Amino acid sequence: MQHTAAKSDLRVATLARRSAMDPGARAAAARSLRDAVLAVPELEMAGTVAAYVSIGTEPDTRGLLLALWKRGTYVLLPRLRPDNDLDWASYEGPDSLVPGPHGLLEPSEPPRGPDAVSSADVVLVPALAVDRRGTRLGRGGGSYDRALARVGPAILTAALVYDGELVDALPAEPHDRHVRAAVTPSEGLVRLA
Ligand SMILES: Nc1ncnc2c1ncn2[C@@H]1O[C@H](COP(=O)(O)OP(=O)(O)O)[C@@H](O)[C@H]1O
Ligand SMILES: [Mg+2]
Q1: Looking at the chain, which terminus has fewer C-beta neighbours within 10 angstroms, N or C?
Q2: How many domains does the chain fold into?
């Protein structure tokens, strides 16, 4: 319970900080993240990348998705299931996204099942914060704890965050799945223990 409360406080604080950011600074951060991600060696080699469509004040991933798609990378995007697990479907360009639950934009292509994420060569995930051990703080649905449990040990899994959101330590519960890297606008790809 203690961890649950600590996580909840951190979520509120992070979302408030993101809201207070200047929109121009958010856009600049998104461009830096896009360029950093596109330069990651595993990603340049990847046939399939699992990614996500940003919402709200998250670093905007739409430019990144478009760049990957234009490069010929096969991009899988999540579709939120009623039980908060994630299904996956292919991204076929910006016009292939449709409104989903909670203000999400989701791929309109047929869903390929929750296990489809296992076929990705790189997995990019959202986070409110990540710590140096790879502990990830999400919005509280546990969706990515479930998705990341289906990803093999050799696959690069990376959370995209703003500067200041890669921190020394976050509260971790037994069900929390780690990411193997963070990407920040200033530091680029940071591999984590
Ligand atoms: N593998 C799982 N199967 C079912 N539910 C899970 C699983 N992992 C996490 N959850 C649920 O998600 C809830 C929120 O998890 P939490 O780690 O706090 O969220 P987030 O990872 O989004 O920050 C947990 O309390 C748990 O009920
Ligand atoms: Mg979690």
Answers
A1: N
A2: 1
Query: Which pairing describes strands 156-160 and 48-50: parallel, antiparallel, or unpaired?
Result: unpaired
Mean pLDDT, residues 159-164 taken together: 98
| Bridge partners of residue 190, in order along the sequence | 182
Q: What are phi and psi of 6, to 5 degrees?
A: -65, -40
- Give the tens place of pLDDT for each residue, 70-102: 999 999 999 999 999 999 999 999 999 999 999
Are 171 and 162 in contact, with CB atoms under 8 Å apart?
Answer: no
At 107, which CATH number? 3.40.50.10420
Pocket, ligand 1, Cβ cutoff 6 A: 7, 137-142, 144-146, 149, 173, 175-176
CA of 143 to the centre of ligand 1 (A): 6
Ligand 2 ion: residues within 5 Å (CB):
145, 176
Q: Please, which residues have CB within 8 angstroms of residue 99's CB and are 6 or more apart in sequence? A: 105, 106
Residue 146's domain comprises: 2-191
